[in-house]
Amino acid sequence: MRLDEQVAKEYRLNSITDKNRLKTSLLLAAVVFVIVIILFKYNLWLQWGVPHFEPTFLDTHALLSASDCNLKGYDVYKENPCDALKRPHVYSRIWLSIGYIGLGREHLPIIGAILVVLFYVCAIWILKPGNFTEFFVSLAFLVSPPFMLCVERANNDIIVFILLSVAGAFMISNKATLQWFSHVLIYLATFLKFYPAISFGAFVYYLRNNKVFWAVVLISIGVIGCFVWATYDDFIAIATVVPRPDSLRFTFGSKFVFDCLGYSDYSDILKIVFTVFVFLITGLSANQYKIPKNQVSSNRRVVFFLIGSFNLIFCFFLNTNFYYRYIFMVMTLPFLFDLIRRFPAGSVFRRLVRAFFIFSVLALWNELFINLIMSTIQKALQWPEPVLYTIYLCILTLGHLSAWGIIVILLFFTYSLCLDPGMEKLRWLTVNIVRRSSGKSQKGS
């Protein structure tokens, strides 16, 4: 690279000052909160592609009502008459402790509002858009229907998001105490909703000391194993009542695209086959096209990317979810923005990031597209129901195919970041196991 090209590149990377980021972040916060307030005030949820139920903040209401009924002596895993929809409790017993600190259904509006504000504060702090391109991309994510569904219901994924956001900030701290406290926050998030345990996968990249890494792995397995053992009965109860999406809409998971294509009887088998295929092909591709180490951005962006990516990939392949799980995409964006800045047009990495953003628009705004396109066709053209249903199914299928595209690209970059340090940690473990076993055999002889 010529000197003038290097200087231009460094200028491009460093031209986004903290002052610029602060201005665009404040503007982003203002626009987002105006949109959210308008949606709440004028009840425009359905027009935005978000189903609305009463009471507002329905999912936080579920937690508070379960806590209230638990105090009254009900087994809320079996019945919860305190809930507006009579839904049983489907989460860890830890949530039921809310009632012991004096919080109940009467506090729903203030608790829901606080959760929404904290969610957007954390999200915008992570994003810190540096220019208007990043501003508009961030805005498109933050007010998309999946994000708005999570906000409208004040789903407890918001609490998990907040905990993991603080954990990510503590991971990159220079203080050892805060770094270790990040583990505690991930444990807490895991105890609340189980799936955040996968966030420890970020330590493959983040913890360079092999001995410390394997110590953390063993401690984490022990702590989470003890929690599962202690709450095993709750796990069994939750497994029978946990809500599953009963529709192809508002969903996030690897099987739904096969349901859309008419292979619902074979969707579980196809899901497994395609998952194995995707993991193999993406791993081989990432091994060939690795991000150069000198082009890897700051630890802050990488750590947040890996936390968000691991949670999205894990939830996508393991289970069927409502699509507010997309909120973890926020954590991946700063790293992807940085790749756009660091690599020239035409590079593999830049093309993948652009494809990621295209897939994101198709997946995140799919419900709005369905509403707009279907309502327009129904008003302008008197087409028969079978034709309308076919169009509707095509739009829905495009959304679920785009979700696969998002996950494949995230998997590629996750592999690219973690493959080498992961293999190095496995080699270190293998060598030490062999040494110890050979040492013991020599002592025995």
Terminal Cα separation, in Å?
Answer: 60 Å
Residue share in helices?
A: over 70%
Poorly predicted residue ranges: none
What's the overall geometry?
globular
| Largest sheet, strands/sense/barrel | 2 strands, antiparallel
Q: Any idea what the radius of gyration is?
A: 23 Å
Mean pLDDT: 88
What is the oligomer described by this structure? single chain
Helix and strand succession? Answer: HHHHHHHHHHHHEHHHEHHHH
Q: Domains counted in the coordinates: how many?
A: 1
What class, by secondary structure content?
mainly alpha
Proportion in β-strands: under 5%
The number of distinct helices, counting runs of at least 4 residues, comes to 19
Number of strands: 2
The strand order across the widest sheet is 1-2
What is this structure, in a nutshell?
The chain has 445 residues and is an all-alpha fold.
Can you walk through the features of this model?
This protein is mostly helical and 445 residues long. It has one domain (19-444). It is built from 19 helices and 2 strands. It has helices spanning 3-14, 18-42, 45-48, 58-71, 108-127, 132-142, 145-153, 157-171, 176-193, 203-206, 210-230, 232-241, 256-260, 267-288, 299-318, 333-342, 348-364, 366-380, 385-444, and strands at residues 251-252, 321-322. It has a two-stranded antiparallel sheet with strand order 1-2. The radius of gyration is 23 Å and the shape is globular.
List keywords for this structure.
mainly alpha, 445 residues
Record the SSE blueprint.
Blueprint: H1 3-14, H2 18-42, H3 45-48, H4 58-71, H5 108-127, H6 132-142, H7 145-153, H8 157-171, H9 176-193, H10 203-206, H11 210-230, H12 232-241, E1 251-252, H13 256-260, H14 267-288, H15 299-318, E2 321-322, H16 333-342, H17 348-364, H18 366-380, H19 385-444
Antiparallel strand pairs: 1-2
Helix pairs in contact: 2-5, 2-6, 5-8, 8-9, 8-15, 14-19, 15-16, 15-19, 16-17, 17-19, 18-19
